Automatic annotation (TrEMBL):
Species for this entry: Sphingobium limneticum
EC top class, as a word: hydrolase
Signal peptide (from-to): none
Keywords: Chemotaxis, Hydrolase
Protein name: protein-glutamate methylesterase
GO cellular component labels: cytoplasm
Protein EC: 3.1.1.61
The CheB-type methylesterase domain, residue ranges: 2-191
Record-level Gene Ontology MF annotations: phosphorelay response regulator activity; protein-glutamate methylesterase activity
Top-level taxon: Bacteria
Reactions accelerated catalytically: [protein]-L-glutamate 5-O-methyl ester + H2O = L-glutamyl-[protein] + methanol + H(+)
One of the GO biological process terms: chemotaxis
PANTHER family for the chain: PROTEIN-GLUTAMATE METHYLESTERASE/PROTEIN-GLUTAMINE GLUTAMINASE, PROTEIN-GLUTAMATE METHYLESTERASE_PROTEIN-GLUTAMINE GLUTAMINASE
Active site: S14, H41, D134
């Protein structure tokens, strides 16, 4: 699939997420033009330290997503703890307290399905390391909408269950190591 025309990137990760994202996000320059939406499974009873952790290590802007917030280019949006993160058709973000999906809130499927509806073929979605099946149905929706689907190489993932399930649901997904993913994301910004 061509990298051209990607207007947004959605990423889902669970077990091993912090290590994987620490390889990817700091590699993005301050002027990276594409917004990134990220769901990491964070227990609801814990405060989400991801924003402060990544803001200190990244050149690109990093923030916690807020309800009804317009999407800005070149910004990483993390889902808050205990809220689903959705992308709306008007290119804004919304938060939901709907039931957990795959025992998770935020759930990767919710993000990917809503982003696929909002962006269609202009979305690139990435399922990284994790120990459950969250992200599989969402990546299938991205494929159905004509978006670019990517899963982390199983050998490269700390826990391969999630990327394996996503590839099964979306066999046309590209398989990449984290080292392959970084130049690919940089290429997206140049198209």
């Amino acid at each position: 699939m061509s990298a051209e025309g990607v207007e947004a990137i959605a990423i889902g990760a669970s077990a091993g997420a912090v290590q994987a994202l620490l390889r990817i996000l700091p590699a993005l320059p301050a002027d990276y033009p594409i917004p990134l939406f990220i769901v990491v499974h964070v227990p609801p009873d814990r405060s989400n330290a991801l924003v402060s952790l990544f803001a200190a290590k990244c050149q690109i802007a990093v923030r916690e997503a807020e309800d009804k917030e317009p999407i800005l280019p070149g910004t990483v949006y993390f889902a808050p703890s205990d809220y689903h993160l959705l992308v709306e058709a008007d290119r804004s973000l919304s938060l939901s307290m709907d039931e957990p999906v795959n025992h998770s809130r935020p759930a990767i499927d919710v993000l990917l399905e809503s982003a696929a509806d909002a962006y269609g073929p202009a979305l690139a979605a990435i399922v990284l390391t994790g120990a459950n099946h969250d992200g599989a149905a969402g990546l299938k929706a991205v494929c159905a909408a004509g978006g670019t689907a990517i899963v982390q190489d199983f050998a490269d993932a700390q826990v391969a269950t999630m990327p394996e399930a996503a590839l099964t649901a979306c066999p046309s997904a590209r398989v990449m190591t984290l080292d392959d993913l970084i130049p690919y994301l940089l290429t997206l910004a140049a198209t």
